Amino acid sequence: MPSSKRFVCIHGHFYQPPRENPWLEAIETQDSAAPYHDWNERVCAECYAPNGAARIVNIQNKIMGIANNYARISFNFGPTLLSWLKENAQRTYRMILDGERKSRRAYKGHSSAMAQVYNHIIMPLANARDKITQIRWGIADYISHFGAPPEGMWLAETAVDSETLELLAQHGVKFTVLAPRQCRRVRRIAGADDDVVWSPTPNDTVNSTRPYLVRFASGLSITVFFYNGGISQAIAFEGLLNSGDAFAGRLKDGFIPEATGPQLMHVATDGESYGHHHRYGEMALAYAIKLLEQDKNVHLANYGSFLAQFPPDHECEIVENSSWSCIHGVERWRSNCGCNSGRPGWNQAWRKPLREGLDALRDALVPLTEAEGAKLFQDVWAARNAYIDIILNRNSETTNRFFEAQQSHVLNAEERNRALKLMEMQRHAQLMYTSCGWFFDDISGIETVQVIAYAARALQLAQNLFGESAAALEPAFLATLKDAISNVPSQRDGAYIYTELIGRLKLSLEQVAAHYAISSMFTPYGDEAKIYSYCVRRVSHDIFTSGRGRLGVGSANVVSTITAEQQSFQYAVLHFGDQNITAAVKPYVEQDADALSRFAAEAAECVQRADFAQVIRLLDRTFERVDYSLTSLFRDDQHQIVKLILNTTLSNIEGALTTIYEDHSSLLHFLSQSGLPKPPALTIAASFAINAGLKRAIESDPVDQALIKSFLNLAKADQVSLETATLSYIADQRMKRAMLDLLTSASHEALDRALALGRALVELPFESSLWQAQNIWYEFLNNQPPAIAGLTGDARIRWDEDFNALGQSLSIDTASVNATNAFLVSAALDVVSVASWRRIPSRAQRRRRTVRIRRWGRTLKRVGGRNAGQCEGKCKQSSGEHLDLHGWSNSSF
């Protein structure tokens, strides 16, 4: 078979469930993700970021090149995840966008990025209205990131029914990807007079190397690609990513040898397989891609490019209500079907009442939404579909455009507030169906608690909007959740989780004011402060101090940036020192100003006399309720303020333990060398002192190499276990800061500091993830600022030597990287013949291409030495017609 007809496509489904606190619109600290702030941040560090800069290494495990995997694979990112990356991991987000742009160039205008239904709901279990919203929100989100409509759309868990496929087709989606077991039967597309028999495809027997058309009675159609199930399974669960060579070989083995037509050998897995589920999986992927690119018998492709070249000549029927992760169809998301993570003795009977409770809530909100929406919008459901514009870009301009297009009349401020609450209620009614809520083993899992929290927020907004008309909704929901029994005895059931766990998350504007008041004792706020999804405008604020005691008194206006709801409050906070804080808050209007001033003056006198008992009596009399404390702070701020409070205490403890260790270190050395048992108290002191000292030494600026060596020797001599996870994280962050300083200042002083730190970290007896620092080194190499590029003579020689030494300390094969860049240009130019030069149609095009090649020659001369200089000379004589050096170099290295 002609080799040009064999194509390979690797698809990664990159997704994390939304984790934001529904009241704060932010992810709070998740202790299980430590040392990272939360699981999004952790998985980003282990997977999403590394795939944008995947390492290709030599046999000494030194980096020979860095590749952006997103430029060569097919991928989709969950919209809620991609929005998080845009806000919180901007470098990674830019790498994803850069990879997508390169994919368009590589695949003749066809993007490797697919869209996804918005928040990963199981489409066959949704009603038609919600399906349309999910599709439209997914398309709008895609356009906001990539600037053009998507060709393909990923379905959550590849869960599918015919109605969903037809709706995709109605919205201009050309294809989707499904599992092989989701194909029911196939046949060759028949002519008008042909009668072609259908062939059943049981047990994953569909030929997955060709696309199939699904046709509908309406005349619409959509293409379906069924991925190779066996190889996809091996990637995800059988260790195929342990070797890039094996991975590439297995992909090539997936072709059908006797086939005569074009073949697309494609696989699909969770994108997290490449780095998070399988450490260094992104490196295996990058190396496999490199091998495939070097093989003349196969070509890389994405779904759009293959479909454009080879439209389907077969059609299929799907298995209705099927998915890739439940052999029972879509039962995993509504029943105790037996699909789970394997906890012995547990059941998932809770799935049914959870689904029923959410369905009943959704349906009960419909008539309320339509009645209220009729007062505000031309068409409330069209308004919901258009609300994605505000979700993606929350500012006054977008909000005004939304209302101009959707409102039934010019709305006043109160009506706009109600309209936004109505849309937010419906947004949370979508988010509460995120599939992960049912996927895992127990209703008390964080994913399930999250979807119940979204339901709680929808209920709160409904009660706020509809009052008595919505009074029965929450009791009915809780009654259903009562039947969702947890496998964890302490968690009881869904109603208990709703009341006890999610009840603590619920917020009112008063609680935001309390948070502001308490945190203002530790944080110097300005006249206006952004606190998560709220804006707090200060009206007044005074602090009175006596010894360790402090009293804060003030007033502020709290505004939700989501719903525009606002209210003013007055507050008083009494801090006795350490964690001893008590606070009171109540509504405030302008007429309260004199009374608040009198309270402040009287309380200030008491503080000056250190009569704090009288201050508390004044608080009780003025505010009536004094029921806020340090525990009233939002979780992240609570952690930060407790850390501030503990700093002095921990410093004293560290000093005491260090003194104990230093006073008795010779005894500990003797006991270690003699093999005699060491007293636990002394062992604890040694462990704390050595690890704390090592942390300080790594974080010092400039780094103290001798001190690091000293602590490492002590740890070895006294048999102290190092806190490797924490120390590795600190080393990575410290090296990143040093490299950012180099990138910003481009000075030899910054290079010297970074080099000293790099050499010190090489001595650490554990692996440090210097991923970010390596990326910055590579970025600096290829984009040197004018001040460095213009160096000559001894200054240039010294800079190159030190910069290469820094790269070597970061495990980079600098000689190979520099030589490879030069070789790529030289080899490419050698293959450009006079005939190919003459085929360039116009002098203007020849001139533009020559300028481009010369520019790259000059760039490589800076980083590649004499060989690159020789390349520049060739650039003056020739032109690389079929060569995009920028795309080639950056995608492969």
Descriptive terms for the model:
52% helix; single chain; 19 strands; 6-stranded parallel beta sheet; alpha/beta; 5-stranded antiparallel beta sheet; 893 residues; disordered C terminus
Write a structural description.
- Strands 1, 4, 5, 6, 12 and 13 form a six-stranded parallel beta sheet that branches.
- The radius of gyration is 31 Å and the shape is globular.
- 42% of the residues are buried.
- The two termini are 32 Å apart.
- The chain is of the alpha/beta class and 893 residues long.
- Helix content is 52%, strand content 13%.
Strand percent estimate: 5-15%
N-end to C-end Cα span: 32 Å
Q: What average pLDDT do the residues reach? A: 89
Strand segment tally? 19
Number of helices: 34
Structure in a nutshell:
The chain is built from 34 helices and 19 strands. Helix 4 (128-146) crosses helix 5 and helix 16 (446-466) packs across helix 18.
Layout of helices and strands:
Blueprint: E1 6-14, H1 39-52, E2 54-57, E3 63-67, E4 74-77, H2 79-88, H3 90-106, E5 113-116, H4 128-146, E6 153-154, H5 162-170, E7 175-178, E8 183-188, E9 199-200, E10 212-215, E11 221-226, H6 229-237, H7 244-253, E12 263-270, H8 281-294, E13 299-300, H9 303-309, E14 314-318, H10 351-374, H11 380-386, H12 388-392, H13 396-406, H14 413-431, H15 436-439, H16 446-466, H17 473-481, H18 494-502, H19 509-519, E15 528-531, E16 534-546, E17 549-560, E18 566-577, E19 580-587, H20 593-608, H21 612-623, H22 635-674, H23 680-699, H24 705-717, H25 724-745, H26 748-762, H27 771-782, H28 786-789, H29 793-809, H30 814-830, H31 834-838, H32 843-864, H33 866-875, H34 885-892
Parallel strand pairs: 1-4, 1-12, 1-13, 4-5, 5-6, 7-11
Antiparallel strand pairs: 2-3, 8-9, 8-14, 10-11, 15-16, 16-17, 17-18, 18-19
Helix pairs in contact: 1-3, 2-3, 4-5, 4-11, 7-8, 10-14, 10-16, 10-17, 14-16, 16-18, 17-18, 20-21, 22-23, 23-24, 23-25, 25-26, 25-27, 26-29, 30-32, 30-33, 32-33
